[in-house]
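Reader question, answered in our methods column.
A reader sent in the components of a multi-part assembly and asked whether the whole thing could be modeled at once rather than chain by chain. We filled in our standard form and ran it. Here is what they sent:
COMPLEX SIZE: two components
ENTRIES:
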Amino acid sequence: MAKKVLTRIPKEEREESAFRRRLRVARHTLLPVVLIVVTTLLVLGAALSLAGYDAGLAGAALWRGAFGSWDAITSATLVRATPLIILALGFALALRGGALNIGGEGQFYAGAIAAAAVAAHVASLPAPMAIGATWVAAFAAGVIWVSVPVLLKLRFGVLEAISTLLMNFVAEALVSWMVQGPLQEPTHIYPQSATLPASAVLPVLPGTRLHLGFGLALVLAGVLWFVFNKTRWGFQLRAASYEPRVVEIISRRNVGAMLAIALLVSGGISALAGATEVGGVSRALYQNLSPGYGFTAIAVALLARLRPGAIILSGVFFGALEAGSAAMQRDAGVPAVIVYVVEAVVIITLLLIEARGWRRREALAGA
Amino acid sequence: MLIAGFLAATVRVATPLLLAALGELLAERGGSINLGIEGSMLAGALAAAMGAAWYGTTAGMVFAVLAGAALAAVFALITVKWGADQIIAGTAITLGSIGLTGAVYRLAFGAGGAGLSIPTVAAIEVPVLSRLPFIGPALFAQPLATYVALALVPAMWWFLFRTRAGLELRATGEDRRAARAAGVNTVMHRTLSLIAGGMLAGLAGATLVLAQLGTFAEKMTAGRGFVAVALVVLGRWHPVGALLAALLFGAATALQYLFQAMALDVPYQLFIVLPYLLALIGLAGVLGRVKAPGELGKS
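And here is the structure of the entire assembly that came back:
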């Protein structure tokens, strides 16, 4: 027995095959996420049964509403997933650098306003140019909108979490003024903007309501994946969220400027969600356009551990929950708002895992 | 009459905001920024509606305080004990509260919630003083909660700046390690300040239901808890500042009613954003040097 041990290379010193490494990483990152999701749904089902609902019926309705048909998948789930994915990408970009952008909701509205305002002036352009113009305008509006918290942070050290949150309320009031003032529809009766000209409306997949915004979400996820994983800047941004001084010394970069850029682009990306929602779904600017997408997106990004590829999946998951919960309320009488409880449990569980991991690293470092 | 009505509306709108802001102030002085206060307020509103509908308004108040405290206790558990990020945890608690209150409300009062009539508390008129011109109705003919909120301002000032426990709480919020080294039980201070803050937020939700609207609706707090966070900033982490900020917000809201009644052509949204803009300016320190508690937001 002892001889055998000596002739074998100890397990931890053997070289790990690439496949095995991937498997190990997947076990540590994917497994907790899947476990959390499954457990949350099971507990929710048990709670619903205790409350006197038919959990089986509710589950079936949830599934039918989210994935039951081609129409449910495209016109309900993926349409709802689109703004969630885009906003979650924006949130993730900032948090990769350690900045909390809680202002997704406000940046969404900034983008929606800009898209609606520009669309009215580009009716005569061909569709690709008109849509491009609304997207560029929305991105710029998001950058400008988040530049206030960025300036406050750089100049006065104001916590960006508070300032971006406050800016949400300013944005909501701005939309309210816009749809009753400068951007109100021509008859001045309804609190909404004029309907978008045909050239600025996003094309849809034939026979569905799935619009080009979903394509934009996928492209943005690809771009961010590249930036995070294949560029030096993306690596340094992440490193800066742990040890800003070290990054400053080694890379000779101004970490404050890196974070400012990350936050500004984060705001621009979040604003694109507003533009695609106006261009692809509502086709006019309304008040209360977002049912809290900016906050749900936080759950989307955290569940994906801030990884762009995973954000697509978790965005579709939460989009499906929201789409399915509407069917659940209709068919099984279960309140649709129960989705928020699922979101809360998922966020808190992930936070606790992160916090534990962080403490372990700190302990290893001898702190 | 118009001015008296305006002042009364100002105080009426300011009352729940002041209660929630004082609660958040206490938590932030201990170093915790609790965005879950919006959730505590919403839970308080539903608990007040249920308690009042079944056992009367006093029970409603008690239920609300307990519900607000319960959510704050969850927040304290995950941020203070387990060290999770405060901002994200607070957002999650508020989301969870929106879902829970919506579901429980439907369970308790049926799908539509129609015909839900909740007994409300009457205003207590102080003899003679309530007849004073202009300020009489605003200050001396309000429900009990308003008097409680106003009395809490000097009480909290006294607690924070004139008692040992208040000093220890502020030390905890300013520099946790130093406080701990000086023998202060920082975990206890952070936990208790959060729970007390949650109780006040629950009471704020109860005020909304029992003293103002007389009913509950899903998401009825509509961001008032987040407003309270802004008011704390605007009030520069001081009870008197929170009072002034809450009154300013109340006045801005009351002004839009007034302007709409007078059919003036000023966008009323201007008044809505004013307190937020002032809070942002206040954060930047333009209104004089102001510093947040040093540990704010750190778990």
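What stands out: Residues 36 and 90 of chain B are 4 Å apart (CA to CA). The longest strand of chain B covers residues 124-125.
Send us your own complexes using the same form.
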